[in-house]
């Protein structure tokens, strides 16, 4: 039986997801957690957690020195820096690291239709996992998490719900179902994967907090706010066309609409539990209340 990871270092710990993973690991007495951060980063971290600084170009010699003695690297760096994980993987192999969790968190990157629309996101993530597979013979194991959107950010960011104005933007009829996961649950899943690597190594783990539709969220938001929301219905294909037009001109304001399309329209991998086995039970993830999570979000607006 493979022993659990003990010394775990988190890369990208100052982003949207990293703090939740650090917090989950830090709360468990088994782990010795540290953080890898670039010299130029302005992020602040819990004072009791060791922080290792590295050059902005992730110099391999520096990385090998920092990673030596670590059992696992958990990477949550931003999508635009995904390619920099190859240097980390090379260093991890040289340093004798046992396990690597790539910054895969999010949509199912193996959905070809979605990858065709957003190759700049999907292709790089796929390539990193392929690279990790090529290092299995060197003794480095990996686990990649498919989580769908980070629920509490995505709801008001691109899924179409304006908490302040109480306005919903619904694609077509809004009844297609899809998966999303809260950041605290992702943190819990990563922690539990590190505790039982024999069950989680060299595979994708598909998890979710909710399997919902836009109309489910609208009904829940109306219930928790005690108010009728304004709703605008948009034609999904027209939204996609306009978003792609903008992106073709280098205008990234079309990105939220395209992310909404990929999540909510059938065939683009949003409802990955239709075809994949849920790892929720394997990862001992709790049942969550959509209403409670949404109530918390409306209170913070």
TrEMBL record:
<keyword id="KW-0521">NADP</keyword>
<dbReference type="Pfam" id="PF05368">
    <property type="entry name" value="NmrA"/>
</dbReference>
<dbReference type="InterPro" id="IPR008030">
    <property type="entry name" value="NmrA-like"/>
</dbReference>
<dbReference type="InterPro" id="IPR045312">
    <property type="entry name" value="PCBER-like"/>
</dbReference>
<feature type="domain" description="NmrA-like">
    <location>
        <begin position="6"/>
        <end position="235"/>
    </location>
</feature>
<protein>
    <recommendedName>
        <fullName>NmrA-like domain-containing protein</fullName>
    </recommendedName>
</protein>
<dbReference type="InterPro" id="IPR051609">
    <property type="entry name" value="NmrA/Isoflavone_reductase-like"/>
</dbReference>
<keyword id="KW-0560">Oxidoreductase</keyword>
<dbReference type="InterPro" id="IPR036291">
    <property type="entry name" value="NAD(P)-bd_dom_sf"/>
</dbReference>
<dbReference type="GO" id="GO:0016491">
    <property type="term" value="F:oxidoreductase activity"/>
</dbReference>
